[in-house]
Amino acid sequence: MKLIMLGCGTSTGVPRIGGADGRGDWGDCDPDEPRNRRSRVSIVVENRAGARLLVDTSPDLRSQLLANGIDKVDAVFWTHDHADHTHGIDDLRPMRYGRGAPIPGYGHEETVRRLRNRFGYVFAGQHGYLTICSIDTLDRLRMCAGFGVRSCQMDHGPAQSTAFRFECDGRSIGYATDFSAINRDMVDLFYGCDLLVVDCLKREPHPTHAHLAMSLELAEACRVKRAVLTHMDRSMDYATLSAEVPPHVLVGYDGLVLEA
């Protein structure tokens, strides 16, 4: 399987709007290092047959898909309903053109309910426009477009986020973004993964996200072969952080492609 990291930034991205000259607040990140420029989080997983699953529809989705040459996906999965993970949903519209049916979409029951309420036109059509996506819960889903799919719930401060494990061709990719505590279900889900993409907002503890020590703890507890850090803020300079982490842990960046 292949992982395509569309975006790996926090909810405001890196650089954040602002800065002394109005050209962006880079914090501790070196503005001359291209891998520090981070759009909001989203990934694609792809198998040998070319089937693709998209996880989350970030507000930067259009530019992410164009930058990575992706013009179709076979299904969409949402981790939760927060704006930085969903508000690019309308950018799925061009990938609906030429399809005989809406793009299948999936999420946890509460995520599905909230997305239907917020983006009714996407899932039901409106004013002559086609339905862009269908949406269903994950309860009975075991396979999708040739991928095995497993999931569990994670604490995300007072909210929850969904963790995913995708399996195909004897390989596995796990995705754990937006969590603030490690639970037994997460360890069971990710145990032995070939590749785990893991939330890592900053070095210091945070009430709604994993910090560096927690991210490394999850990777170690799950005995994953490789881990990739994501959802990083402007305190996480690429080169500095790369020098800190173990050899089997990579600092993610927009456009990173890895084989699992």
From TrEMBL:
One of its GO terms (molecular function) is hydrolase activity. The keyword Hydrolase applies. Pfam families: Lactamase_B_2. PANTHER family: HYDROLASE C777.06C-RELATED, HYDROLASE C777.06C-RELATED-RELATED. The keyword Transcription regulation does not apply. This is MBL fold metallo-hydrolase. Residues 39-231 form the Metallo-beta-lactamase domain. Keywords: Hydrolase. InterPro entries: Metallo-B-lactamas, RibonucZ/Hydroxyglut_hydro.
